[in-house]
UniProtKB/TrEMBL annotation:
Taxonomic superkingdom: Bacteria
Protein name listed in UniProt: TonB-dependent receptor-like beta-barrel domain-containing protein
Region (Disordered): 165-189
Origin species: Sphingomonas panacis
Length: 732
């Protein structure tokens, strides 16, 4: 076992003493688990963002993330760092996140500890596509990072070109045409995309504190060929429509953190600006009266949205007094946001403006009730209670108060139990309130009247919405243990959320929904579905109950070395296995006060969009050696059987399993931990089994199978990437 691994194991069994680093709000807490760089290397990801996503998949609940014990205004630039820049990932139980101003959701907190001495400059090229050779992807990414003590400088530039998938390359199944009623074989099932992205981040000591800054700019453009229908339902058999959407976004964030003794203070400032433009172009003759333009090519829709947002957040936390069980701690967080949304309808020369101002505050008090030194009760372990009060206000709407109570019980070092009871409200987002009225053409939906998939138009945009309130109960238990050279972590989480006045939308018609909401589903005289009003509205109540189980195993073989004048230390063999199972026990939606609740597991709101499954299983295993790494991912979800209220119509979806495989190989001096640059070739096969949803619909006319190529157009794909380092890298 390597010296670093031995030291890390000793660290996990003793109190944490911070030397050479600035104090943070979590210096007095022992992490539940520590993922060393050896364990992290077995994930074989290319960015820190991908690594965090992989860890979150097996933790059951999406975690809160801090970096070097500090909450940053934005993780945009940090997510582009190479995983090799991470020294370790510390996993903390609830309610640690409340010390940084995160909502008391009952989730875990990840502290990303970066290396103190690291340097890397790489160029990565990717190429791939579907195995049917009808869609290609090409990308080029340059990454650079330099870490020296508390100073950090990192930059990323990327360019991506992703092709579109045409219906003409996909077969028809069971008599269902590729576009439903219209039957246009030239339409795009998956849009093409071009993206340019640049990010810059740095941190440095400033005065008595630390300054973290990040800058991001992004240009994203999508394009697709649409089906031959318009909002009014007029067929255009000899014409085409093309949808173009471009988004330009810029973001800058700054965080200044400083500690005075045991008290910690930080200020986060963010400013973002984005402009999105959606254009629908129609090839037509000059006599067609569907556009305001005149000529063979016109614009039937041209809407732009400009959004500017500024935010200021501040937090203050520290110990108030010492008691026998531990320290009483106070954490305060406050923030203010201002946003402005300007909608430009360039065809009708309208320019409505919407302004959004919100203020929020959160106060958390941590009360240690029982500690190891507590007389008589010390044998129970450590018990902490953390009551939290929140207030949020929205200009012109009012204010809401929330409360939460978190309890953490450390029974013994390997076992902990956490509970969170929260009651709070939330205002609609600026997108839900101020988004422009926009018609999204050519959206695939299931239409029960034809028992098949059709392409129709979606009406989206902001509407007048009321606030929603929710009551949440989270119960979790975590057990960690080391068996020789293997570590094991088991976790379970029970979650129930009851939301009043939830914000929902109706994505597909059904006999029940169309009977009660006829104005949301527009049909022509022939019964063809021409428009769905998918704008959000407030329903009555939403209830969700789930149980999640996680198991993570990891092991490391001892490192070996070679003798001689050019001695090398060979990286030990790393392996890991992660299992995550989620059981959705209940999910029901009551749309109106006198409307019976809809069991969404038996009667989903959307078939094409993906019905919720009662069981979801994820398996992930990886083995990493000195030069080669193999990673296997498998996901499975249970089937769904939905019976319509009339007793005749039904939909049956078979269970679906998808398998991914990733292999990488390092070339060069890969086995030396004092390595010179190495070249890495990575191959990834997604959906090896080429699995697609298998859905059968039943009606009075009989049974038919929905076209799986419309439900999952891409299928199996292969991606090859080459990572080339430039210059010297310290250390791997």
């Amino acid at each position: 076992m390597t010296e670093a691994k031995v030291a890390l194991d000793e660290l996990s069994d003793t109190a944490i003493v911070v030397t050479g680093r600035r104090l943070t709000p979590i210096d007095d807490i022992k992490p539940r688990r520590i993922l060393s760089d050896d364990t992290l290397s077995a994930y074989r990801t290319t960015t820190l963002g991908e690594l965090l996503e992989a860890i979150a998949q097996h933790e059951g609940v999406a975690p809160d993330v801090v970096v070097n014990g500090r909450r940053l205004g934005s993780l945009a630039d940090i997510e582009a760092l190479p995983p090799e820049a991470v020294e370790r990932v510390e996993i903390y139980d609830a309610p640690v996140g409340q010390r940084f101003g995160f909502a008391p959701r009952g989730g875990r907190t990840l502290n990303i500890v970066l290396k103190r001495n690291f340097q890397s400059l790489t160029v990565e090229a990717k190429a791939g596509g579907t195995t049917r050779r009808d869609r290609g992807l090409v990308s080029m990414v340059g990454r650079g990072a330099r870490l020296r003590g508390d100073r950090r400088l990192n930059a990323t530039v990327s360019a991506v070109r992703d092709g579109e998938v045409r219906a003409s390359r996909r077969p028809a199944v069971g008599g269902n045409s590729e576009t439903g009623v219209q039957g246009n074989r030239d339409r795009s099932l998956v849009p093409g995309r071009k993206e340019l992205d640049a990010r810059l981040g740095f941190s440095l000591p400033l005065g008595n504190g630390m300054l973290d800054m990040g800058v991001k700019t992004n240009h994203d453009r999508t394009f697709s060929l649409l089906a031959l229908s318009d909002v009014s339902g007029v067929l255009l058999p000899a014409q085409r429509r093309r949808q173009l959407t471009s988004v330009d976004a810029q973001d800058i964030s700054a965080t200044y953190s400083v500690n005075r003794g045991a008290w910690f203070t930080s200020i986060m400032i963010g400013l973002s600006h984005s402009v999105s433009h959606s254009i629908t172009r129609l090839q037509q003759d000059a006599s067609t009266a569907l556009c305001t333009d005149v000529g063979p090519v016109c614009r039937s829709q041209s809407v732009a949205l400009s959004t500017t947002t500024g935010s200021v957040d501040a937090q203050l936390g520290g110990p108030l007094l010492d008691l026998t069980p531990g320290q009483v701690r106070l954490d305060i967080h406050a923030g203010h946001d201002r946003s402005s949304v300007v909608n430009f309808d360039r065809l009708y020369a309208t320019r409505p403006t919407y302004r959004y101002r919100s203020t929020r505050a959160q106060v958390t008090l941590t009360l240690p009730l029982v500690g190891p030194k507590t007389p008589l009760l010390g044998v129970l372990g450590t018990i902490d209670f953390s009551p939290t009060l929140t207030i949020e206000s929205l200009a012109g709407t009012g204010r809401m108060f929330g409360r939460a109570l978190s309890a953490s019980w450390l029974i013994f070092p390997e076992l902990s139990v956490n509970a969170v009871m929260e009651s709070r409200g939330s205002f609609p987002s600026i997108a839900q309130l101020g988004a422009p009225r926009l018609v999204v053409p050519d959206v695939n939906v299931y239409d029960y009247r034809v028992a098949g998939i059709v392409a129709t138009n979606y009406l989206t945009g902001g509407t007048a919405l009321a606030r929603e309130s929710s009551d949440t109960i989270t119960l979790s238990a975590n057990y960690t243990r080391t068996f020789g050279g293997m570590s094991a972590a088991f976790g379970t989480t029970y979650l129930t959320i009851r939301t009043n006045e939830p914000i929902v939308s109706l994505p597909e018609p059904s006999p029940l929904l169309e009977a009660y909401f006829p104005d949301h589903f527009i049909r022509d005289a022939g019964g063809r579905l021409t428009l769905i009003d998918a704008r959000p509205f407030n329903a009555r109540r939403l209830l969700r109950k789930s149980l999640t189980l996680t198991l993570n195993l990891a092991g490391t073989s001892d490192a070996s070395s070679t003798a001689g004048p050019k001695a090398t230390v060979v990286r030990p063999l790393q392996w890991r296995l992660g299992v995550r199972a989620e059981h959705l026990m209940e999910q029901s939606l009551q749309l109106m006060p006198r409307f019976a609740p809809i069991d969404l597991l038996a009667h989903p709101l959307s078939i094409v969009g993906g019905a919720p499954s009662a069981w979801n299983l994820t398996l992930q295993g990886g083995v990493t050696g000195a030069r080669t790494s193999l990673v296997v991912d498998y996901s499975w979800r249970s089937g769904v059987h939905a019976q319509a209220q009339n007793g005749h119509d039904a939909i049956h979806s078979e269970p679906l399993g998808m398998l991914d495989f990733t292999a990488s190989r390092d070339f060069g001096n890969a086995g030396n931990t004092q390595s010179t640059p190495t070249f890495r070739v990575t191959g990834r096969i997604r959906n090896i089994l080429d699995a697609r949803p298998n859905i059968t619909v039943f009606s009075r006319a009989g049974a038919s199978r929905l076209n799986p190529w419309l439900l999952a157009p891409e299928g199996r794909s292969i991606l090859i990437s080459l990572t080339v380092p430039i210059g010297k890298e310290y250390p791997p």
